[in-house]
Write a structure and sequence with these properties.
Radius of gyration of chain A: 20 Å
Low-confidence stretches of chain A: 1-17, 23-50
Number of strands of chain B: 0
Number of helices of chain B: 9
Strand content of chain B: under 5%
Number of domains of chain B: 1
Largest interface: A-B, 28 and 23 residues
CATH topology of chain A: Sulfite Oxidase, Chain A, domain 2
Oligomer: heterodimer
CATH superfamily of chain A: Oxidoreductase, molybdopterin-binding domain
Structural class of chain B: mainly alpha
CATH architecture of chain A: Alpha-Beta Complex
Structural class of chain A: alpha+beta
Bound molecules: protoporphyrin IX containing FE
Number of strands of chain A: 12
Order of helices and strands of chain B: HHHHHHHHH
Mean pLDDT of chain A: 86
Distance between the termini of chain B: 26 Å
């Protein structure tokens, strides 16, 4: 199967980010003022307004996996995003109309100047690059995904964390109106919302760790964590928290949602490790989406060379 | 409301049976159709595993519902459908198990054995499947005659163990959202609870009438 990489995209197909934003504003303002609500619906049907924002002029990265990409359709239809649904196909359907603008991210804790950022402000401020990463889910399947984003470390540097900033804590949007999976079901809440994740500060500033805002050269669809998510490629997928609204710098190790849910099954580190089985899944092998035979899982998901030193001297079967 | 006469019941059940037989094949046929048209989703093997697992459990529940339905409605001819549903449970369990062995693990015995030994939900599912084998094997009239009614009936009480293990298997494999297995657990408790209540009542009334106790649930 031929997969068109963003580099092959014809320039005329690409909408420049600024142009796109302005066009959106124009459509919104114009429609509301002159034509009233009915016209908004009409405009929403025009391809321009519904087209996904495309990112062009991506910086080339030195961290690209040289493997064939998982097709766009699979990346955007097979998702674990319990905020929408616990099925794999559910999030793509339920997040179809998810509005990821306006979106602000509160950055707080042990840094020089806590502040609330608009997501578009961050997108403009940091040069975006494409990062082709393996994504390994704790459920023993994997993908290869071309993310668009920027190094979290570059952002953190500008925040000037102080010496008490030993960990970084992230939080997903909690809004049951927009995220139906957060509503209480027959047996209460599926997870303890809002979804939380955490990294050690050295993990957070590692050059492999990114904040992603796009996939396949386009803005992230709702089911992939729009508008901004974490990607930590050497850890199981659940660490890569989606739809982030808060980043907090703290001194004590944060407790992540899955650890609260089942402490003997999910730890804080969640580094991909074929030698440490999860009670539900052997982690020795994985199925790459689209392939029949399982393949052996690599230590740190194949990123051992870059990250193994972070865990030197630690017992990884205890710190799972 | 008096139930229909035995002749009418029989006539109806004979008409319904081929329809039910075909209907039970639809989930399997749909899987084949989706496989042929490449619409099983990003993880086809998972879709097949889930679908066949779901239908095993559903067929087990339908099988267990026959006796209460007969007793509550007086439609005793329904008994003529019970074996078919039971065998369909086995059919889907066999597909489910084969999917696991062939498609999911591709005969990687060392991983299969590790799964059975280390993962309780697999062990429990495996036990349920193994228990279904003697039930399916002795489902013919010939086997019923060979074993004799009493022994056959005792063996077929395993029918109660299999769905209990099946629901546990489901409950232990979900990560966080227990809604679906909990619904099955509820249905199963009603189906088994009905039998317990009825058994107790009959024992009580027999005791009053001075009839010696018999072990017939
Ligand atoms: C009577 C026996 C069994 C019943 C009733 C049963 C039922 C089920 C059900 C309802 C599901 C979940 C479907 C869903 O999520 O929609 C399931 C999943 C599964 N079953 Fe079974 N099962 C049985 C036997 C087995 C056996 C013998 C094995 C393998 C040795 C097995 C392996 C699995 C696996 C691997 C999954 C998927 C787990 C996952 O991906 O998380 N099951 N089964």
């Amino acid at each position: 199967m031929l997969i068109r990489r963003p580099a092959d995209t014809i320039p005329s197909e690409i909408t420049n980010y600024e142009v796109f934003r302005r066009r959106r504003q124009l459509i919104k303002g114009g429609a509301a003022a002159a034509l009233g609500l009915a016209a908004t619906g009409l405009f929403a049907l025009t391809p321009e307004a519904s087209a996904k924002l495309k990112f062009d002029q991506l910086k080339k990265s030195r961290f690209n996996a040289k493997e064939s990409l998982t097709p766009y359709k699979d990346v955007t239809s097979y998702n674990n995003f319990y905020e929408f649904s616990t099925d794999k196909e559910g999030p793509a359907q339920l997040a179809e109309d998810f509005k990821s603008r306006p979106w602000s991210i509160e950055v707080a804790g042990e840094i020089k100047k806590p502040k609330v950022y608009d997501v578009d402000e961050l997108i403009k401020r940091f040069p975006l690059e494409e990062r082709i990463y393996r994504l390994r889910c704790v459920e023993a399947w994997s993908m290869v995904v071309p993310w668009v984003g920027f190094a979290l470390g570059d952002f953190i540097k500008t925040l000037e964390p102080n010496s008490r900033a030993k960990y970084v804590e992230f939080e997903t949007l909690h809004d049951p109106k927009r995220m139906p999976g957060q509503r209480r079901g027959l047996f209460g809440s599926v997870l303890d919302w809002p979804y939380r994740e955490g990294l050690r500060i050295d993990e957070a500033i590692h050059p492999l760790t990114i904040l992603a805002v796009g996939v396949y050269g386009e803005e992230l669809p709702g089911q992939n964590g729009a508008p901004i998510r974490l990607v930590v490629p050497w850890k199981y997928g659940f660490k890569s928290i989606k739809s982030i609204v808060k980043i907090n710098f703290v001194e004590q190790p944060p407790v992540n949602t899955w650890q609260v849910q089942a402490p003997h099954e999910y730890g804080f580190y969640a580094n991909v490790n074929p030698k440490v089985s999860h009670p539900r899944w052997s982690q020795a092998r994985e199925r790459r989406i689209g392939e029949f035979f399982k393949r052996p899982t690599l230590m740190f998901n194949g990123y051992a060379e870059q990250v193994a030193h972070l865990y030197q001297g630690m017992d990884l079967s205890k710190n799972f | 409301m008096p139930a229909a006469s035995p002749e009418i019941q029989l006539r109806w059940i004979k008409r319904v049976k081929p329809v039910a037989f075909t209907a039970c094949l639809i989930p399997a046929a749909l899987l084949i159709w989706r496989a042929a048209t490449d619409t099983l989703g990003a993880e086809p093997i998972e879709t097949i595993t889930f679908t066949t697992g779901d239908w095993t459990l559903r067929m087990l529940m339908i099988t267990l519902a026959i006796t209460p339905l007969r007793q509550l409605t007086g439609w005793h001819a329904l008994i003529r459908l019970r074996r078919m549903f039971g065998l369909y449970a086995f059919f889907y369990a066999l597909l489910h198990f084969t999917t696991y062995i062939v498609l999911d693990q591709f005969f990687a015995w060392q991983f299969i054995l590790e799964d059975i030994a280390e993962r309780l939900y697999i062990l429990v599912g495996f036990t349920a499947f193994v228990l279904l084998i003697p039930l399916a094997a002795t489902s013919t009239n010939r086997m019923l005659q060979r074993l004799g009614g009493k022994r056959w009936q005792r063996l077929h009480r395993l029918t109660y163990a299999v769905p209990i293990l099946g629901v546990l298997h489901f409950l232990w494999l979900v990560k966080a959202d227990i809604t679906e297995p909990a619904i099955y657990a509820l249905v199963l408790s009603i189906l088994l609870g009905y039998r317990i209540v009825r058994y107790r009542r009959r024992r009580a009334s027999q005791a009053v009438a001075g009839v010696p106790k018999r072990a017939t649930p």
